[in-house]
Amino acid sequence: MKRKRDFDLKMGSILPLMGLFCILFISNSWGDSPKTLPSDEGTDAIITGELTVLVIDDFDNRHAEVLYHLKEIKSGKVFNLHFKNEPPGKLRTGAIITVRGKKKDRDIYLMADTGGTQVVQLVPSAPVVAGNQKTLVIVANFLDSAVACSVSDIGYRVFSDPPNASVNALYREMSFDQLWLTGNVVGPFTINYSTTSACDISAWASAADAAAMASGLNLSNYSRKIYVLPKTNPCGYIGVGTLGGNPSKSWIFRCDRSDTFAHELGHNFGMLHASTPTDEYGDTSDIMGYGGFGLRHINGPHQDQIGWLNPIQITGIVESGVYAIAPLELNLSQALYPQILMIPKPDTGESYYLTYRQAIGLDAGLSSIYLKGVNIHRYKSDTATRTYLLGVLADGESFTDSLNGVTITQLNRTDQYVTVLVHLDHAPVCVNNAPAVNITPVSQNANGGSSVTYSVSLTNMDTIDCAQATFSLAGEVPEGWIGTVSPAMLTLLPGAMGSASLTVTSPTTEAAGDYTITIAVADGVTPARLASRTATYTVLPTPVCTPSAPLVRISPAMQSGQPGSTLAYTVSVMNKDSVDCAATPFSLTSSLPVGWMGSVSPSALTLSPGAGMSATLTVTSPTTAVAGNYGISVSVSGNAAPLHAATVNGTYSVTADATPPTAPSSLTAKLVRGTVNLSWSASTDNVGVTGYKVWRNNAVIAKTTSTQYADYSVSAGQAYTYFITAFDAAGNTSVSSNKATVTISSTAKKK
């Protein structure tokens, strides 16, 4: 009989994970006491500025902090923000916000008064979670301490570890090839700080930047910057990362741990920690959990947050039933079933996330505790806070949330899927939740003025006892752009999913760069039904055509032939225009000495930039050509553009003809009425037979171009012996033909 173990949230019982139980002190938004001022202290302040959010990680002491710094646009002063309640979850580095609170010195205490909204986000900073992440790793030593790893070792860990276990390989694998890293590791540079200096990561970064620029680097080419510093330092951190930002920044103090690099980059991409209810870093199935466990994938809630899964891989559950879940590591074509099941958790506005992990790819080293069955997390997607792992079930085990009437029982598992029984014990109460919205692809490229279309999926996440809801969909695009959603409204029952398309057109004059577009969803009545997703529209640089002269070659450059010979040359043409030019039709014409004959075939070629083709030049010299070198050429022109003209030259070497014709043959001589008629078979020659000499009694009596001759100058009573020789234009003479003798009787009469 299968054993059953219940985990009742109401009683606070949670499946322990790897013995990690620790209550953390976490600054600002993570569990510290509310920060307020006495009513008679501080002054009311409204400040607008650019936000920097820093996540500080101290894995060894299981200590984490989140710091919020606001640089006022007007004065340039930097203020520390303190939140009485949990900060808005989607605040990211680079956002322009306006805050209202009590100011004392350089500290601003929000919620210190009793007014309304304390944070208004004017310009959000959408984290880039797709495409090529151009990354610069700067290695910096202190005056009295050096980084323990070599530049090459750090390069292997981040970009190109030979066993395919680099941070780049991890992000490429778990994003299903939607995100990857390219870049360089430079240094080490020694900066003017020591282990006894004050902890000032900003100053260290500035000094490292200056050293890198002095070496000739252009830092503006990189959207991600990682600073690797000595393990021994006055801060005592393992790593620090900005939450979002472009360029984002990470500080690494343990260069020998690849997952520390991956963890801090995760903060740069917008993710916070993978936690359990009792341990900030307790979910070690995720690189956003505790460090030192090697490279492994992110968990299901983080996959949903960062948007690498196709919407059909995520299913919202609003009624009881048996469901199958495919391993999270599989791509869409491999997964037999959805890879994330989401169940609403109405009491907190969160959702339960059910996923299944297997030892696939870089998850091969994942602890077996996460592989035995369904992983259960809770997460609030509209705030993008931490994810919480609540338990991992085995066959026959159950997870129960009595307060919300949710029971999840694992039935069985295979390598390809796990099956669970989800029981929802609903009271007839409607709880409105933010809809699940997704947009794909997360990034597209196009030229300015182009229209691109994004697919939008929307799932009504209200509880099953709610009525259908009508959602309005709107595209939020940069000023001057056009965004159209079709359909603009979707009416959905709880759990139902609808689809729409967002078409975005950029201005033709828009500068090249990455631009954020947003699909915003609301029902116009219920605040809980608000949701949004962002994607990136990358405007490509305006194509510029730079025409160039084509590259023309002739082969062979020189050939030899006797007069009258026909020689063939290969003429190759390559279009050297820049890649943004259109295809060009080229015309080919030959130039030959006077009296020579030749042609180019084909005489026209149409070539795209970088493409090449060949033609054949055929040249025939006159049979009377004198021995020597003669210049020949082929001219190429295209589109009547001067830059598309080029000429290539070759040589035709005429050699002297030393080959005589073959001997005439089959000579016959007949006496007809006192005239001797001669005929013979023609000779052949390597160039051509010019004519024949007629010999009579060893003396030449005539020259002819015919193969017949009539000798009228004969006398009766005489005997005559004839033979023929052939000659060519070079004066070469053949050997004689056979001989023919005629004897004329004394009574013969002339014609």
> Beta-strand level of the residues, as a percent range?
35-45%
Q: Please state the overall shape, judged from the principal axes of the Cα atoms.
A: elongated
| Oligomer classification | single chain
Query: Which regions contain 5 or more consecutive residues with pLDDT less than 50?
Result: 1-34, 112-116
CA radius of gyration: 44 Å
User: Which percent range fits the helix content?
Assistant: under 10%
Domain count, please report it.
Answer: 6
Count of distinct strands: 46
Summing up helix and strand content along with how strands pair, one would put the structural category as mainly beta
Strand order of the largest sheet: 12-18-17-16-15-13
Helix run count: 5
The largest β sheet comes out as: 6 strands, mixed
Mean pLDDT: 88
Gap from first CA to last CA: 136 Å
